[in-house]
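Subject: sequence -> C-alpha cells, single chain

Hey, anyone have a minute? Need the predicted structure for the following. Not urgent.
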Amino acid sequence: MKKYPGTKFEQKVWNYLKTIPKGKIKTYKQVAIGIKNPKSARAVANACAKNPYAPKIPCHRVIRSDGGLGGYSGRGGIRQKLKLLRLEKVPI
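Reply:
Had a minute. Here:
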C-alpha cells in the first residue's frame, strides 16, 4: 500500500480508488463497504474531495448512490469529471 500525504483513512480510500478499473464506477457507499467501513460513505466523499492526486488516483470513478455525479476535486471540477467518465465510455 503506497503512502500518500493524508490521514490514514484518506490513504485507505485513495488506495482503494486505484483498484477501480478504467470504465467502471462505484458509489461512495460501495467504496465505504470496500474499505470495510460500511457506514462511512460521507467520510469517503470527503476523502475524495481532498484527493490532491486526481485524476492519477481516480476519484472521478466514484458517484452518488442516486446516480448523481457528486463532486470532483481535480482541475476543471464536475465538468472535468463528466468528461473523464465519458472518455472511459461510462454510460452517464
